[in-house]
Design a protein that fits this description.
Blueprint (H helix, E strand, L loop, with lengths): L11 E10 L3 H12 L4 E4 L16 E2 L13 H15 L14 E2 L2 H15 L2 E3 L3 E8 L2 E9 L2 E12 L5 H5 L4 E2 L13 E4 L3 H7 L7 H13 L11 E4 L4 E5 L11 H25 L7 E5 L10 E2 L7 H5 L7 E5 L12 H14 L7 E4 L11 E3 L8 H7 L2 H21 L8 H10 L5
Parallel strand pairs: 1-2, 1-8, 2-5, 8-17
Antiparallel strand pairs: 3-4, 6-7, 7-8, 9-14, 10-12, 10-13, 11-12, 15-16
Helix pairs in contact: 1-3, 1-11, 2-3, 11-12
Bound molecules: flavin-adenine dinucleotide.
C-alpha cells in the first residue's frame, strides 16, 4: 500500500494524574472511581456523550446485576442503579423485569447519560468529548503521551497512569501490547439497536410472539426470509425491551462478518443494519400484535459492537474459571452473567447451539466467578490498565464479563488502582493489592 510520512509539533494541552480513554460504562466507572480517591482525572471520548454502547449504542437492558443473593457491581454500580431506579419511579414506570419473559432492568439512554454526567461532575472529572485517540508515544514499559484529534486539531495529553476503556483495546494495541481478535467470520456480530414508540405493550405481551425463544416468532421469520420481506436471514432475534411507559428498545438485526477495527467494514455494517431495521419495522407492524401502530424514532449513533480485541494481560481469565466459580488472591470483584456468545452465523442450528450454551452456563443462585486484578494489567506496560470489554480473558469469558455491570466492576477497580499507583509513585503492577481490596471492601464489593 502507498504510504506518506507525516511529522509535526503537537501541543501538550492536558496533564493529569490519570487519563481515561473511552467514556463507556467502564471508562465512566474508572474515571469517577479514580477521582473519588483524590486523583486529577481526564476522561476522553471520541463521541459526544457518556455511556458508549449503553447510551449511544441504545442497548436496552441492564443485564444481570445480582447472583440472587448479592448485588454484584457494588460501589459505582450501586450509585448508577439507584439513580436509574428513582428516575424510572419519577415517571411512574416499573423498570425491572421489563422483557416480556421477565428479566433485566430497562436502560433509558437519556437517564443514563444524565446520571453519568452528574457523577462525573460531582467527582470533579474533566470530561472531553469529540476527542479521538490517534496515537500513543511510549518509552520502554511506559506510555508517555497520548495523541488525540478534535475539531481543533491534533493535541497531546500526559498522565501518570492511563486507563484503556475504549472497548476495542485501542490504546493498548497501539502501544504494542499483544492482543487476541477473532477473524470477522467468527466474531460476535454487531447490532444496531433501535427505539420504538406507539407499541401496545399489553397486547404484545398477551400475544406471546416475542423472540427466538418463541416458536411463533421463528415461524414468522421463516416466512419473511422465504418471501424476501426480510432480505438477510437472521434467526437470532433477541427481541423487544420496555424502556418506559411509552418507549420500547429493540435489540434486533445482526451484521455478520464485520471487522470492528476497519472503517469500511463498520460503515457498510451500519448502512446494512439501518436497512434491515427498516425492514423489521414493516415486519412488526404487519405481523406482531401490539405493533400495528409502532414506529421507530431513533437508533444507535454507535454501531453495537459486542466483541473486538481482547488484550493480553498478566492473567487471561478463562471459561474454566467461570465454571469453577474461581476465587483469586488478587480478586477485585465477582460476576455471573451466562456465556452469551452471539453466533457468527445466522442459521437455526447456530441459534440452537447458542441457546444451549446460555442455558447450560447459567450459574446457580448465590454463585459467581472472581475477577483478578492481573486481568486488567496489560503485559509489558507498567502505567496502563484495561477496563471493560477489552480486559484479558478468553472469548467465552468475554461473552459474560462484557455486559454493563461487569464493565462497571472492572472500571471501578482500574480507577482505584490507577489512583493508588499515582499516590504511591509506583507502577500499576506493584501497587499493594490489599490496599486496593480494602478500598473495594469499603464499598461493599464482594471479592
Ligand atoms: C448490541 C448490543 C447489545 C447489548 N446488550 C446488552 C444488554 O442488554 N445488557 C448489558 O448489560 N450489556 C449489553 N451489551 C454489552 C455492553 O453494552 C457493552 O459490552 C459495554 O457497553 C461495554 O462497555 P465498555 O465501557 O467496555 O465499552 P463501550 O460501551 O464500547 O464504550 C467505549 C467508549 O470508548 C469510546 N472510544 C472508542 N474508541 C475511541 C478512541 N479511539 N478515542 C476516544 N474514544 C474512543 C467510544 O466512543 C465509547 O464511548 C450489549 C452490547 C451490544 C453491542
Amino acid at each position: 500500500m502507498k504510504t506518506v510520512r507525516f511529522s509535526t509539533d503537537i501541543p501538550v494541552r492536558y496533564s493529569a494524574d490519570v487519563c481515561v480513554i473511552g467514556a463507556g460504562p467502564a471508562g465512566v466507572s474508572a474515571a469517577v472511581s479514580a477521582a473519588r480517591q483524590g486523583a486529577k482525572v481526564l476522561l476522553f471520548d471520541a463521541h459526544t456523550m457518556p455511556g458508549g454502547m449503553s447510551t449511544a449504542g441504545r442497548v436496552p437492558t441492564l443485564m444481570t446485576y445480582s447472583d440472587g443473593v448479592h448485588f454484584l457491581p457494588e460501589g459505582f454500580g450501586r450509585d448508577v442503579f439507584e439513580r436509574m431506579q428513582s428516575m424510572a419511579e419519577a415517571l411512574d414506570f416499573s423498570w425491572q423485569n421489563t422483557t416480556p419473559w421477565g428479566f433485566g432492568a430497562s436502560l433509558n439512554s437519556w437517564h443514563v447519560q444524565n446520571i453519568y454526567e452528574e457523577l462525573l461532575t460531582a467527582a470533579g472529572v474533566e470530561v472531553l468529548y469529540s476527542c479521538r485517540l490517534t496515537a500513543a508515544i511510549t518509552e520502554d514499559d511506559r506510555i508517555r503521551q497520548v495523541l488525540f484529534v478534535s475539531p481543533g486539531g491534533l493535541f497531546a495529553a500526559e498522565a501518570g497512569v492511563f486507563v484503556d476503556a475504549t472497548g476495542d483495546g485501542t490504546l493498548a494495541a497501539w502501544s504494542d501490547v499483544p492482543f487476541e481478535l477473532a477473524p470477522p467470520d467468527e466474531l460476535m456480530p454487531p447490532t444496531l439497536c433501535s427505539i420504538w414508540t406507539g407499541v401496545d405493550w399489553e397486547t404484545y405481551h398477551k400475544a406471546k410472539v416475542f423472540s427466538h425463544d418463541t416458536d411463533a416468532m421463528l415461524e414468522l421469520l421463516d416466512k419473511a426470509f422465504e418471501t424476501g420481506e426480510i432480505t438477510e436471514m437472521d434467526y437470532h432475534h433477541t427481541g423487544m425491551f420496555r424502556l418506559s411507559n411509552y418507549l420500547v428498545g429493540a435489540n434486533i438485526t445482526h451484521a455478520y462478518g464485520v471487522d470492528p477495527s476497519d472503517e469500511l467494514s463498520l460503515s457498510r455494517a451500519l448502512i446494512r443494519n439501518r436497512r434491515n431495521v427498516a425492514q423489521y419495522e414493516n415486519f412488526y407492524r404487519k405481523h406482531i400484535k401490539g405493533f400495528e401502530k409502532a414506529e421507530i424514532i431513533d437508533c444507535g449513533s454507535l454501531l453495537g459492537v459486542r466483541e473486538s480485541r481482547r488484550i493480553q494481560c498478566d492473567y487471561m481469565l478463562t471459561f474454566t474459571d467461570y465454571k469453577n466459580c474461581q476465587d483469586f488472591e488478587d480478586g477485585i470483584g465477582r460476576y455471573n452473567y451466562p456465556a452469551d456468545l452471539h453466533p457468527a452465523k445466522p442459521d437455526r442450528q447456530s441459534l440452537e447451539e447458542h441457546k444451549k450454551l446460555m442455558r447450560t452456563s447459567s450459574l446457580p443462585k448465590g454463585k459467581s466467578y472472581g475477577i483478578p486484578y492481573r486481568s486488567l494489567l496489560p503485559v509489558g506496560k507498567d502505567n496502563l490498565l484495561m477496563a471493560g470489554r477489552c480486559i484479558g480473558c478468553d472469548r467465552l469469558m468475554h461473552s459474560s464479563v462484557r455486559t454493563i455491570p461487569g464493565c462497571w466492576i472492572t472500571g471501578q477497580s482500574a480507577g482505584i488502582a490507577a489512583a493508588l499507583a499515582v499516590k504511591n509513585g509506583c507502577s500499576c503492577r506493584s501497587i499493594d493489592i490489599k490496599e486496593l481490596q480494602n478500598r473495594l471492601q469499603e464499598l461493599h464489593v464482594l471479592l
